[in-house]
Amino acid sequence: MSSASPIGHVLIVEDEPRLAAVLGEYLHAAGYSHDWIADGAQALGAFRAQQPDLVLLDLMLPNRGGLDICRDLRKESAVPVIMVTARVEEIDRLLGLEIGADDYICKPFSPREVVARVQAVLRRHRHDPHGAPAPGLLIDEDACRASVDGRALDLTQVEFRLLRTLAAAPGRVYSREQLMGRLYADHRIVTDRTVDSHVNNLRRKLADAGGGEDWVRSVYGAGYRFEP
């Protein structure tokens, strides 16, 4: 590694050593640090230990598949995930499953293309340099608090998770099903109307604090996105 600080850390979950090595070399050249896991059963433990900025996740892995890993990641984190698959026809199926991946790439691919996708996804996910995903909005994840221009938002735990999830990826559309997975870690049964109610409450509280009620926008037939 060079003496310069890395611009981000990528966890590569891939069972092909040569491919993982090439990806690592290109990521290193682009300024990223990385680690490699070949066994799907070790992926979540590695993620929790490293807290990477992005996960490159192969679909077909020994001992545990990428779909299950991605679903579990989404229950505890909004970290960007790029799924890697060997078959083009799997892309539509992955999109239909709404597992929460941010992008998909099909083998064989150019390592340069993968690095470009990593850079693009991280740009979408990262907040501005001052930590504000919207003008005046501050989100303190450690304290589970949020404020607009210094005015505290009186949010429930579910509303805070909703705001944190949406604001972490401005412009990204989350389906109601995806939001359910982020908001309720105990797999309780909730309906679309429950998610809509939380969204309406969050919009009202944002507006009451001086923020934009339209920061959380509806996307007809798809879900919601954060767009300040």
TrEMBL record:
Response regulatory domain mapped to chain residues: 9-122
Annotated DNA-binding residue span(s): 129-228
Recorded GO MF terms: phosphorelay response regulator activity; transcription cis-regulatory region binding
PROSITE patterns named in the record: OMPR_PHOB, RESPONSE_REGULATORY
InterPro entries, sorted: CheY-like_superfamily (IPR011006), OmpR/PhoB-type_DNA-bd (IPR001867), Sig_transdc_resp-reg_C-effctor (IPR016032), Sig_transdc_resp-reg_receiver (IPR001789), WalR-like (IPR039420), WH-like_DNA-bd_sf (IPR036388)
OmpR/PhoB-type domain residues: 129-228
Pfam families with a match to the protein in the record: Response_reg, Trans_reg_C
Keywords recorded for this protein, A-Z: DNA-binding, Phosphoprotein, Transcription, Transcription regulation, Two-component regulatory system
Modification type 4-aspartylphosphate: residues: 58
UniProt superkingdom: Bacteria
One cellular component term from this protein's GO annotations in UniProt: protein-DNA complex
PANTHER family: REGULATOR OF RPOS (PTHR48111), TRANSCRIPTIONAL REGULATORY PROTEIN BAER (PTHR48111:SF59)
Designated name of the protein: DNA-binding response regulator
Organism the protein comes from: Xanthomonas phaseoli pv. syngonii LMG 9055
